[in-house]
Design goal:
The structure is a homodimer. Chain A has one domain: Roll (Pnp Oxidase, Chain A). Chain A is α+β, with helices and mostly antiparallel strands. Chain A is globular, with a radius of gyration of 22 Å. In chain A, strands 1, 2, 3, 4, 5, 6, 7, 8, 9 and 10 form a 10-stranded antiparallel β-sheet that branches. Chain A is about 20% helix and about 35% strand. The first copy, chain A, is built from 6 helices and 11 strands. At the A-B interface, strand 2, strand 3, strand 6, strand 7 and helix 4 of A face strand 2, strand 3, strand 6, strand 7 and helix 4 of B.
């Protein structure tokens, strides 16, 4: 009944894309850049590891770490003693960070060394990270980080107790200044190179999971859960 | 003939490890850190993608990029128009960078959310990157970057011509302030959690290569080279 549908009050849709800024517009290969929200989300959601950059004593630091996405927010956790989390804590100005996620999808071998490349999907998020203090938001963030690695796992694990929560810092980074970059397809050889005798093409790459290895002390009666077989 | 051997002048061996510094000594999980040269090299050599961090207008930037290792030097290349390479160029002081390489080897699922982790091998290199101008070193660097992706490939591709070389910037980062970090093994569950009904263990992860896909315009007479089958 179209009449009824047309009368429904629909919530305002978030913009379909992120607003490009000076630092999210690439200086090269602009045709590979995307600001589409769904594209960004899908690249983030296919990952659980990010590389988090921050500045310490004027110099850049890049550390690999887990992250979780909840809507338009990314969360990173760590020991309250770890450097970026300590730097963000109690700092009302937050911590300037760059959070980058990269998937390699293929090795691109062209006839010319110059046109060698990778097929990849990456997301770069610029912004300011703030320490999360609200207990409920911290709980949601910690669950999201576990579920980012293995969807569904947070419900099948003992939640953090008071002591563990006290030892864990959580920082939040909003998805505002964001871009994705994607390369797909075969090599872009120059026309005059097509006849060269070198193999040209793509070697696809993807992460592969092997059969889960139970802990030595796991009760043999506990079977591999369905959410692991889904990997 | 031991006498002869004892009389040989042996070149000074490079130190077996890198000297730890304030920023390569981790604030946590110190038992996972290593400064052993062979360990660092093996982690770097198993990779071709790094995350390069630098500071732009006071804020951190982290970009995924290819790299190559030649002895104690890492090389990164890019368009002469790309940001980090432009920043390093013509700057006698070089560009402060942090270059990080990470391999994920397994998802570590503990009974407690708190003890979830990854098995991983990472290397973090701090230092100053300088633009490489010497033509011979540039050639070696560009070959190394191609061979880091597919060992042996640089000999089976057309080398860069003058125009391509002019469009390519190369930066060098020496391996001086370097650390590796490695986690292996099963989950570190607390003793009081062992009896909980949650599956606990490790899901191994590794990159998997699929069969090479020839370019659409590849002469069918050109077979897949041995160095690709070796992947």
């Amino acid at each position: 009944m179209p009449e009824t549908v047309s009368q429904q009050t629909t919530p305002p849709e978030p913009a379909a894309g992120y607003e490009p800024t000076g630092r999210t517009i690439p200086t090269r290969s602009r045709e590979r850049a995307s600001y589409d929200r769904e594209t960004v989300h899908s690249i983030l959601d296919a990952a659980y590891l990010c590389h988090l950059g921050f500045v310490r004593d004027g110099a850049p630091v890049v550390l690999p770490t887990l992250f979780g996405r909840v809507g338009e927010r990314l969360y990173v956790h760590g020991s309250t003693g770890s450097r970026p989390l300590r730097a963000a804590d109690g700092n009302d100005a937050g911590l300037a960070v760059c959070l980058t996620v990269t998937h390699v999808d293929g090795l691109v071998l062209a006839r010319s060394a110059f046109h060698h490349s990778l097929n990849y999907r990456s997301v770069v998020v610029h912004g300011t990270a703030y320490t999360v203090t609200d207990p409920e938001e911290r709980r949601i963030a910690l669950d999201a980080i576990v579920d980012q690695v293995v969807p569904g796992r947070s419900e099948d694990a003992r939640p953090a107790d008071g002591k563990e929560l006290a030892a864990t810092a959580v920082i939040r980074l909003d998805l505002r200044e964001v871009s994705a970059k994607i390369r797909t397809g075969g090599p872009n050889d120059d026309p005059q190179d097509i006849g060269l005798p070198h193999w040209s093409g793509v070697v696809p790459v993807a992460p592969a999971f092997a059969a889960p290895v139970p802990a030595d002390d796991l009760d043999p009666a506990i079977e591999v859960p369905a959410y692991l077989n889904a990997l």
